[in-house]
Amino acid sequence: xxxxxxxxxxxxxxxxxxxxxxxxxxxxxxxxxxxxxxxxxxxxxxxxxxxxxxxxxxxxxxxxxxxxxxxxxxxxxxxxxxxxxxxxxxxxxxxxxxxxxxxxxxxxxxxxxxxxxxxxxxxxxxxxxxxxxxxxxxxxxxxxxxxxxxxxxxxxxxxxxxxxxxxxxxxxxxxxxx
Length: 178
Fold this sequence. Notes:
20% helix, 178 residues, globular, four-stranded antiparallel β-sheet, six-stranded antiparallel β-sheet, 4 helices, 2 domains, 10 strands, alpha+beta
């Protein structure tokens, strides 16, 4: 998923640990994905919140012990490899990404992030709607909705307002809250 070294690929975030190798066993259910996410979260003293299944991967939100959103991770369904989600979680996350302590000034509110997401979708001729903006360190992630149901997600940088579509997930399948 994110490399093939045993457990890290470079300096930076949390001692350089961006991903964790799976055991090669396919991950086919939300419960199995949550178990992989739990093992990864434990290394960071975080806990797993929402877990989502898409056609290409499993996605999970990690939270601090106090319940604040910390970062987003992916679980590879083919082998269980688990790691920080590429895109915004890796590049924009000022607490757990590659640029810890980077641009931390929040200039975009959650409502402005949703407005930017809606404009971004409209500018591309999409009929999707942006859901609630969930705040991660340095950015927001929003579900994209079609007829009130999750279709995908995108993120908005809290400092610049840039939008990043999560094109790597594939088709939405299901969600598990915990």
